[in-house]
Design a protein that fits this description.
By secondary structure, the protein is an all-alpha fold. The protein has six helices and no strands. Helix 2 packs antiparallel against helix 3. The longest helix has 64 residues. The radius of gyration is 26 Å and the shape is rod-shaped.
């Protein structure tokens, strides 16, 4: 009888331990899912702002075209960067999108140099409005990049720290990529001068 009671106690403790482990595993999995979804949402916010920039710049380019018809190379660079971005965006390739943005930033810098040569363009109200919208978009991109990287860091900490590490590996959670600037010149926002 004594061995029967001890057996029941050991069995009960073992069952309780299994239940606690299962609950901890479910809780850890759910926390990782929530964190991963926050990273995806933060990335989509960057994506929204980058798409806004890619949509805004052709309007700016069209305004400048009337004044600087000989600057066709810049317009081609915008088109290439936009195509690269759309392709990378469809694949969810963070590095590819950063590279496409680097191409866009370079072309944008050259476009701004061209606009400085045309004072009458700088006085154009449509141009001024577009440049203000671009400046606003650049500020939003900067903020959303920071927010994304902070969110990715929180998720990566969950994936890489114990006990989340065990759950992450078991269920195949991968660390998120950070949105890094690969070109030192890109670290500065395009200068908008009137």
């Amino acid at each position: 009888m004594f061995l029967g009671i001890v057996g029941w106690i050991i069995g009960g403790v073992f069952l309780l331990l299994v239940v606690v482990l299962v609950i901890a595993m479910i809780s850890g999995y759910n926390k990782l899912v929530v964190a991963r979804n926050k990273v995806k949402n933060a990335w989509s916010q960057i994506d929204v702002q980058l798409k806004r920039r890619f949509d805004l710049i052709p309007n700016l380019v069209e305004t400048v075209k009337g004044y600087a018809k000989h600057e066709e190379a810049i317009y081609g660079e915008f088109a290439r960067a936009r195509g690269l971005y759309q392709s990378a965006s469809q694949k969810g390739d963070v590095k590819g999108m950063a590279e496409a943005e680097k191409g866009l930033s370079g072309a944008l810098s050259r476009l701004l140099v061209v606009t400085e040569q045309y004072p009458q363009l700088q006085a154009n109200e449509n141009f001024k409005t577009l440049m203000n919208d671009l400046k606003d978009t650049e500020n939003k991109i900067s903020y959303t990049r920071q927010f994304y990287n902070d969110t990715a860091m929180g998720y990566n900490n969950m994936v890489e720290r114990f006990p989340g590490l065990i759950i992450a590996r078991f269920f195949g959670f991968q660390p998120a990529e950070y949105f890094n600037v690969t070109d030192e010149a890109q670290r500065e926002a395009p200068k908008v001068q009137f």
